[in-house]
Automatic annotation (TrEMBL):
Name this protein carries in UniProt: Zn-ribbon domain-containing OB-fold protein
Domain of life from the UniProt record: Bacteria
One Pfam short name: zf-ChsH2
Residues annotated as domain ChsH2 rubredoxin-like zinc ribbon: 20-56
InterPro entries: ChsH2_C (IPR002878), ChsH2_Znr (IPR022002), NA-bd_OB-fold (IPR012340), Thioester_dehydratase-like (IPR052513)
ChsH2 C-terminal OB-fold domain span: 57-120
Amino acid sequence: MSGQLPAPTPDISPEAAPFWEGTARGELRLQRCGQCGTVVWYPRGLCPSCSSSGLEWFTATGSGRIYSFSVNRRGDGAFREASPFVLAYVELDEGPRVLTNIVGVDPDAVEIDLPVRAVFADTGAGTALLRFRPA
């Protein structure tokens, strides 16, 4: 199992503020286009499908499956002591794929299509980082 991953404080853009407010409460918040229904990741001002500015926030299930992953055995900077750790794309039940870390599991036990659930790593600054663990 990997060591404790660092949880650096994120830089927060105005478009992403509702997402970060949700992480502080343990909620995964995503945007949905009111015009075409596309679920959007990452937070932004315009829908990537139809360019509408009518994006609305909703609370997602926090569930998904591992789409792709890599086991990093040589971290850098603050992640040096956390190796090995898993960097993965998780495909959310709502559709988007999120680049994240998989925690709470031996990195060698991670596999494609593994069901996962969102967890939130407190940064100590009023935000939390979105990560996933096996469901």
